[in-house]
Design goal:
about 25% helix; 9 helices; globular
């Protein structure tokens, strides 16, 4: 199977829903005649008219700094362990630069992955990071340009969730792995800045929203102290949605920035229910 054939094996046409296949050197097409160009770097954008904005280069650099530091390694370990051993095709929705997907593929040496993100820069980095990762620029909130029942597992890590679409692209009995922050996650850092708050019941809300499409199999609490110097503090602030809102306290009355905070998340493993893909 060529690289282009493998990329197309994940995808359906965003216009008509028919399966895509290679029709030229860097072009995928469907039987209805719709054509979609593949980036010379090997990934494809099927974004359509989305109004949402993906992470910019500065946010991606900040995320890479945090993830490559190893501070979030307990999350990667838990996610990789939650993916079933026989999973061979893994979609990471909101993949960013592919850090967690690479961890899963390292633990599952026969698997391949699809890194999907709204940011072309993120997808480019993810697809270049491993010859087992294909790249797709798409909006999670819209119908996914991904074939029915083509994925053994879907990862959703600190990312938006399109639960009906995830159920559609999962094979019967496939796994959805969701990571959500708890109330203590980065609390000391959030308290000293204007980072976005985290509801204490976020996991409970995610579990409730997953009914009736999914059955919860496991819920793992991952919590570790995080030492944070100035560079990592700045990266933690700059790597996510808070980068659009944050302003660290300054001036005589400002709270001092912490030198330690806490990693505190729930890793939720769901199985798509029988019939869930048709709901």
């Amino acid at each position: 199977m060529t690289d282009l054939e493998r990329l197309s094996s994940w995808l359906r046409c965003p216009v008509c829903g028919a399966d895509l296949s290679p029709v030229d050197r860097l072009v995928l097409g469907c039987t209805s005649g719709h054509r979609h160009d593949v980036n010379k770097r090997g990934y494809i954008s099927l974004l359509g008219g989305s109004k949402h904005v993906g992470d910019n280069a500065a946010m991606l650099d900040a995320r890479d700094a945090v993830l490559e530091s190893g501070l979030y390694a307990p999350i990667a370990v838990a996610v990789a362990a939650a993916v079933p051993a026989d999973a061979s095709r893994v979609l990471d929705a909101g993949a960013g630069t592919g850090h967690y997907l690479r961890a899963v593929l390292t633990a599952h040496p026969d698997a391949v992955g699809l890194a999907m993100d709204l940011s072309p820069a993120a997808v480019g980095r993810a697809s270049r990071s491993s010859d087992r990762i294909d790249g797709l620029v798409a909006d999670t909130w819209r119908p996914l340009p991904v074939r029915d029942a083509v994925c053994d597992a879907v990862l959703d890590i600190f990312a938006p969730r399109n639960l009906p679409e995830f159920a559609r692209v999962l094979r019967p009995g496939g796994s959805l792995i969701v990571v959500v922050p708890r109330g203590e996650h980065l609390r000391s850092l959030r308290a000293a800045t204007s980072m976005l708050d985290v509801p204490a019941d976020k996991a409970d809300d995610a579990i409730a929203a997953a009914e009736p499409l999914y059955a919860l199999l496991t819920r793992e609490h991952v919590s570790e102290p995080l030492p944070v110097g100035e560079a990592i503090r700045n990266a933690l602030i700059g790597m996510g949605p808070s980068a659009h809102h944050v302003a660290a306290g300054t001036g005589a009355g400002a709270d001092p920035l912490p030198t330690e905070t806490r990693l505190d998340v729930d890793v939720l493993h769901f199985s798509v229910r029988d019939g869930g893909r048709s709901l």
